[in-house]
Protein: Cell division protein FtsK
Organism: Merismopedia glauca CCAP 1448/3
Amino acid sequence: QNIVGETCYPLHMASPYGVNPLVVNLDPEGGGSSLQAISVASVLKKALQLGPIQEGLMLDVLATCYNRRHIFQSNFDSWRNEPPNFDDVQQEINNRVAAGCKDSAKLKLKLAATFQYGIFSRPTFSLKERLIRVDLCKLPPALGAIAAESLAKQLMDSHRLLGEIKGKLPRTYLFIDEAKEMPKLSGSACDRIIADGRKYGLALALASQSERHLSLDVIGNSATKIVLPVDASEVGKVARKFRFAENRVAQLVPLTALCRFGTTAEVVEIEPYYLRGEK
């Protein structure tokens, strides 16, 4: 479904667009290359199921890549140098494989699809357009999770640098239409945005087909909760998790929803987007 006035960036193997997870957070109080390497290694560990040895090796590879670009944790001015990308990562791993490192050969195998798609070797597209849609549907789930987490983190980092907003109107609204595509990490970008994003002007709307894909932090810190009709087997769990009466959840029919605004819960009717677009 295209949206009027949108700028769409499709990410796939043949796309000219990309996301660079290795962009350094410029916050002097919580950024730098070392912390960025730890964050990226953690996301890769979860998305690609890296073992402890592979995670440690990945951290060392990333540190080497940053150093070769003359980016050092101890030198704030160096954080503005052009960051490495996954071409640098691939080259460093290849060098270690050529030197006879068996663990590097195993890590290279785990990252084979990541290198093949190439989306993390291209510069991140501009986020300055008024309405942007990022299409990840043609990526494997693991790569989609890495890309989505990287974009969400970069948005949060950039809004922190802008400082707290004076009013209540957000600068940016981030919509994620399938929460299961995000990595399941404690302290993930979604958890950080839902907890602290509003004071920096970054609002988050997160949708999912199942409550299992929403973290406790997301549910606990969200201001508005909307529940659509669910399968009978899910009624009890959804009602408990979102604090609705079980019979009210069970009585939902298509194009209706239960909405909780703070302590108030209401049943509302839904007008589909395609009908609104015809008006």
